[in-house]
Amino acid sequence: MARTSKPASFEHAHQFETADQQYRAASMGMWVFLVTEIMFFGGLFTGFAVYNSLYGDLFRQASHTLSIVLGSINTAVLIGSSLTMALAVRAGKMGKRGQIFATLIATMILGTVFLGIKAYEYHHKWVDHLIPGTSFAFEGLEGMAEKNIQLFFSFYFVMTGFHALHMVIGMGLMIWLLVKNARHQFSTEYSTPIEMVGLYWHFVDLVWIYLFPILYLIGRHG
Amino acid sequence: MYDSKAEKDYLNADYSIRSWLLTKDHKRIGILYLLGMTFFFLIGGMAAVAFRLELLTPQGDLFLSETYNKLFTIHGIVMIFFFLIPSIPASLGNFLLPIMIGARDLAFPKLNLASWYIYMIGGLFTLAAVVFGGVDTGWTFYTPYSSTYSNSSVMLAALGAFISGFSSILTGLNFIVTVHKMRAPGLTWFRLPLFVWAHYAASLIMVLGTPVVAVTILLVGIERMFKIGIFDPAIGGDPLLFQHLFWFYSHPAVYIMILPSMGVMSEIIPCFSRKRIFGYKFIAFSSLAIAGLGFLVWGHHMFTSSQSPYAGFVFSFLSFLVAVPSAVKVFNWTATLFRGSVSLRAPMIYAVGFLGLFTIGGLTGLFLATLGTDVHLHDTYFVVAHFHYIMVGGAIMGYLGGLHFWWPKMTGRMYSEKYATLAAVMIFIGFNLTFMPQFILGYLGMPRRYHFYPAEFQVLNVLSTAGASVLGLGYLLPIIYFIWSLFYGKKAGNNPWQATGLEWTTASPPPTENFHTTPIVKEGAYAYAEKEYT
Question: N or C: which end of chain A has fewer CB within 10 A?
Answer without folding.
Answer: C
